[in-house]
Amino acid sequence: MRKYQHAAPRRSSYDVVIVGGAVIGSSVAYWLTQDADFDGSILVVERDSTYEFSSTALSASGIRQQYSNPINVRISQFGLSFIRGFAERMAPFFEGEAAPGLGFREHGYLYCISPEGADAARERVELQRSLGAQTVFLEPGPLRDRFPWLNVEDLGGGAWGARDEGWFDSVGLMTGFRRAARQGGAEYVENEVTGLELDGDRVTSVLLGTGERVSCGALVNAAGPRAGVVAGMAGLSIPVEPRKRYSFVFSSANPIEGRMPLVVDGTGTYVRPEHDLFLTGNRPLDDGPAAVDDFEMVHDEFEERIWPALYHRIPSFDALKVRRFWTGHYAYNTLDHNVIVGPHDRVGNFIFANGFSGHGLQQSPAVGRGVAELLVHGAYRTLDLGQLSYGRIARNEPFLEEAVI
Questions:
Q1: Any stretches that span the bilayer, and where are they (predicted)?
Q2: What CA–CA distances, in Å, run from 159 to 168, 209, 279, 298, 344?
Q3: Domains of the chain listed by start with CATH number
């Protein structure tokens, strides 16, 4: 890993300190600077300004509405509208040049459903459709007709997001948030939070790796897979841990005809087109907690688990060659696979935006906006994220999201 060139902040006190400057932290900073009622100071502390190992940069960059909880469908719907309107939103921050789009590829998601899971999948589809999603459930026959390259012999059907699902430029979204936030007055510093100081039930200051003590009015934990470490600095605990996810880009001797969606197999393996290549990954068999700095690759995942699953589901994937690979981290919420948003129930100025379990990129516009609303107005003003609050963690009451890849 690179040797960080840490820098000191310009001030000794900020109204809001955000720990983590990738897509979640930068979304919070962006929405704060866009709120006319906020005139405070913002410091974003990011360990590595190259974002080389950030979950944002290493993600599969997808967005979908196929969730089992209505709030997650709503969150993604706002995320989609934000992505579609990204260039227009960012135009004021690209004076003299065209604001970039995010290259949204609306290919959809296709979940391959086992016969025993078909009834539950139909129920999820009906829920999603009742909320305005375009998901459809296809029986094996129509599924084969629509995707003739797919093996449907052992399937009970497929749940397909025909519209409003796909993938986009993850780094572009983060960069846009970051650029707009900085132009709006947020200060970014490459440094590391090494400790927090509390006075009673409030965080009063942040200790940095360069030795500074920075006072803060509120602390936002947007540290991704390091969220548990940051919470521990305040004597708090959340069920969020790093989980490794292996990604491979491969070429195939046989092309896939037609508009290929992101296909999710029941084994946990997924695959989607990546220009002339394909991107695939899986949920590892050994899916336990990882060290925050462990990005070691396990190549056997492709040879022993991913390729067999791909070949079984898509028989034309019989001759593949890996071209690139990397390891990323999920910030995995072991309680219920859902994000934790909002203040701690005792340390009221410690704000969580943690435990996205692989959904952080697509949920960043709505969650960043929600956290900013809490900080400025003390309540949600747009989409109510109350079901995702810390309270359920304290009560040990899971709010389970079933549709996790």
A1: 12-32
A2: 21, 48, 20, 30, 37
A3: 13-58+170-239+335-395 (3.50.50.60), 106-165+244-328 (3.30.9.10)
